[in-house]
Write a structure and sequence with these properties.
This protein is of the alpha/beta class. Helix content is about 60%, strand content about 10%.
Length: about 300
């Protein structure tokens, strides 16, 4: 519930009663407007609508102001909706000389005069609350990421001492899937495509990436050429990320490999330690590759 620090003035309440009484000619139209504007619509059906429209409006507004604990949001919604009115097409059929529309316009202008400061203050408070809630969400999300990274680092350290390389390879793919999922990069598990084994895929900054994961020995030129061939055989917008925990052999990289970027174990440790986020690292590596042609630049040389 929006709780206003500044009370609605008696003049504003009286102006609201007057405006609601004249902006619609038919009571059915007024009731429809109230139903579309208010959340707590039950009160509308409990009002006596058989008498004068002005008396019905008076009963409605006074009952709402007497129970602000229930109707403050609805009262504010009415103030917003009525003060936002500029034209009154609902009165045209009944308004041959234009007097009804003139009266409605004057009533709304009067309401606007008595509420302009209050509404501005309330909207500023609502915006401040929204900003505070966004900050709280970010803090909660960062806290969640930090705790998840702690668990992923424990898993990574466990994998590091596993001498069953085949088992470690499968577990490493799952580890990477969880890491990419943590940063909302839409990861996909390993799959086969026309006889090719693909370790995974993900989407970053509007670009689809194929993923190759190696944790057994340094990647050599043949391994890198094979992965590059897989990437370049796909759509032109596709790129590749090769993650080799043990890095690459000195002769592995050649200038013709332009569609992939490379991460190693030190890069992963930097992410797990919270020194850089996965999206930021990917961005820096891709930018460095675009600027220099170097597809393998370690974390310590990027920052």
């Amino acid at each position: 519930m929006v709780s206003s620090k500044k009370k609605i003035s008696p003049q504003a309440i009286m102006a609201l009663k007057e405006a609601l009484s004249v902006i619609f000619w038919k009571k059915d139209d007024l009731r429809d407007f109230l139903k579309l504007t208010m959340e707590n619509q039950t009160i509308i059906s409990t009002i006596n609508w058989s008498g004068l429209k002005r008396e019905s409006v008076k009963e409605l507004v006074e009952r709402m102001t007497s129970r602000l604990d229930l109707f403050e949001n609805d009262l504010m919604a009415l103030l917003y909706a009525v003060t936002d009115m500029r034209d009154f097409p609902q009165l045209e059929y009944w308004d041959e000389d234009g007097s009804k529309r003139k009266k409605a316009k004057q009533a709304v202008e009067n309401l606007r005069k008595h509420t302009i400061g209050f509404i501005q203050l309330t909207k500023e408070q609502e915006e401040a609350n929204k900003r505070r809630q966004e900050v709280e969400k970010k803090i909660a999300k960062n806290t969640s990421i930090e705790s998840e990274l702690v668990e992923l680092k424990k898993l990574f350290n466990t994998l590091a001492i596993n001498n069953n390389f085949q088992q470690r390879g499968f577990q490493f793919e799952k580890f990477l899937n969880d890491l990419f999922l943590l940063y909302e990069l839409d990861p996909k598990g390993s799959f086969k495509n026309q006889g090719e084994q693909i370790d995974g895929a993900f989407t970053f900054d509007g670009t689809d990436y194929l993923l190759e994961a190696k944790w057994k020995q340094q990647v050599n030129r043949t391994d890198l050429a094979s992965f590059t061939f897989k990437v370049e055989g796909k759509l032109k917008i596709a790129m590749g990320l090769l993650i080799s925990v043990d890095g690459l052999t000195p002769e592995a990289i050649s200038p013709e490999f332009k569609s992939v970027i490379i991460m190693d174990g030190m890069d992963l440790i930097a992410i797990l330690d919270g020194r850089i986020s996965l999206p930021d690292l990917l961005y820096k590596k891709r930018r460095k590759a675009n600027e220099t042609g170097k597809i393998y630049v370690t974390f310590d040389k990027l920052v």
